[in-house]
Fold these 3 entries.
Entry 1:
Amino acid sequence: MFTLDQVRCFVAVAEELHFGRAAARLRMTQPPLSRQIQRLESILAVTLLDRDNRRVTLTEAGRAFLREGREILAAVDRAPATAREVAAGRIGVVRIGFTAASGYSVLGPLLTTIAEELPRVRVELEELVTGQQKDALDAGSLDLGLARPPFDPARFDSRPLLAEDLVLAVPVGHPLAASAGAPTPDTLRREPLIMHSATNARYFHDLSARMLPADHAGVVHVVSQIATMVALVAARHGVAFVPESARLLGIDGVAYLDLGEEARGVVRLAAIWSRTNGNPALHRVVQLLGAD
């Protein structure tokens, strides 16, 4: 296999088309320079240079190898700086898992911040519920999760991102929208309820059950996605407990009602990551979260 020194010698001669000038450029004498070129040609089993007493010219093989040789030397020159940038977290990949609802609130601004502050860090996204994110973080297939509490502090570090109100989505013109004050549990029990899935949306299911502790006999639909829930409310199929950020969906025909002090700031979202994850780019992103 040829050496980097041989490639440097060849590139110098190919660019200067003169052994004397190439030797001076490399701060060496002509005989060892000639030997390096001869060894390179022997290793490659091709003639790279045509030379006589008056001039040096490149063969077709020489022109092709010059292009590749320049790329090799450029890559070698870049490698130390690239390695330092990767170690510092300024170059790399961060794989982020997110819940559907976090896509309405914090995901967009987070991606904007990463793009502005860490432009050479590539982000890969995957939409997953919190339980799936935890498993993926443990397995190493995700670096960062945008997930709902609680988290096991022995497994995960976390940083709070958002605390928003739980509100009641009702069709526009619904009598509850004209009532003074927050609707009471007795009032809500008389309403057809669009409920969160206990398996695929457990966090919101439990919050809703806390707001309306009953057997949910009035549940007319059970769904997993907040966007679907709000669309059903707009179609006048019932009412639903949703996070305040559901307003950002911009679905017409829906009013959002305050549920009172008990629902203030109860919808929480955090960034979580495995304590054993050594990805430098992840830790750069975490620093951005702290700055934000």
Entry 2:
Amino acid sequence: MNTVTLYTTDTCPYCRSAKSLLASKGINMQEINIQTQPGKLEEMLSRSGRRSVPQIFIGDTHIGGFDDLAKLDHQGGLMSMLA
């Protein structure tokens, strides 16, 4: 199964929504808090090219933010990407 990685902050409501959606599906995730982990903001910028959170990856594939994750799930593609 591919690893799901989320770059988050403590105050982001979309981060909480992404974590909730993934948890509701029983999907384990690696959360990287860019506020509390030095150097992780630069890592997120390098990987995604974006500054907003959450930034979500499945394996090495950049999904985008929460809206992109929700759309992928709604279209039935989330679980197949995890396989």
Entry 3:
Amino acid sequence: MSTEDSPRSGFDWPVRVYYEDTDAGGVVFYANYLRFMERGRTEWLRALGFEQDQLRAEQGVVFAVTAVDLKYLTPARFNELLTVRSSLTHKGGASLEFEQNILRVTDQAVCCRGSVKVACIDAATLRPRRLPDRLAAAI
């Protein structure tokens, strides 16, 4: 996490590009940016004191991505260190929206920029459900 930010305002998570993340051209396969963003949101939640498996077991909620908009700006390559920067841009009753940027550490170039909307859903019924009170207060 960046020292000047708290998980409430923004959160940085490091990711190294492994060979398995790349395509035949040696650059990050486009869909893998979504995986990196997922890790960033999961670690953001963890930094706030919430584990997704515990939220499911204790509160009966899980999260599902409902919308994504990505822009690919510059390629990331094998073995580069990246930063996944996640910022919460909107909190609804049963949803969260994030702006997420994936930056190359060496020059801070933005490789991929995205907005992601996540719904809080009931684990049993898979229907939308309000964010748990403790989580909503922490955000």
